Amino acid sequence: MFDFRNKTVWVTGAGKGIGYATALAFVEAGATVTGFDIAFPGDDYPFATEVLDVADAGQVSDVGGRLLRQLTRLDVLVNAAGILRMGETDRLSQADWQQTFAVNVGGAFNLFQLTMEQFRRQQGGAVVTVASDAAHTPRIGMSAYGASKAALKSLALTVGLELAGSGVRCNLVSPGSTDTDMQRTLWKSSDAEQQRIRGFGEQFKLGIPLGKIARPQEIASTILFLASDCASHITLQDIVVDGGSTLGA
Q1: Which sequence positions are flagged as catalytic?
Q2: pLDDT by residue (tens digit) across 10-52?
Q3: Which residues pair with 155 in a beta bridge?
Q4: How far apart are CA 148 and CA 102, in angstroms?
């Protein structure tokens, strides 16, 4: 569907889940891809890998700076790194709150600080940041995650405004429930997937009108669209990919 031959793409959170599916989709579309993650649990990855804690500004500067010096152009940056820490607000630890923001918001901030001058210098490129439908609809027990993703959305849109004059497009994708390791940590019974599709009234989580959980490849396809020339006049948008569970909120 998409042609990214001769394009250079960076994807954070590429060790597994949505980040991995996205990096793989770019490879299949012909791109030269570097994936970043704190660990790569698989045995073999069809793209270059760099172990990186995106929450560590020093690591981002060292590792990312080394790679940028080897490039003439960075065509696409995908911020997909993220963590989930559950707990009602008054029972959530300070460490979980701070770590959630350090990774989910701080990680993207560090990548933006590293790459914005490169994007300005080359006068073009695309950035896609992975937020969440939790940034649109609050859920009990998800205050840290939802707040971090809402902050991430604001950050990404601000960066988009700051880079628009340089011809750089910045958009977001906000996935709903997607079949990843992160999602499966929330599944506590054999019929958990069907329960999620039906919804959890006690948590104020609506069901999924399309009647299915998203697959990581479906999120990746949206990311590739936003990074492609097919979306050449789309910027500062947040596409919610949740099977209708937020009812367009």
Answers
A1: 145
A2: 999 999 999 999 999 999 999 999 999 999 998 899 999 999 9
A3: none
A4: 9
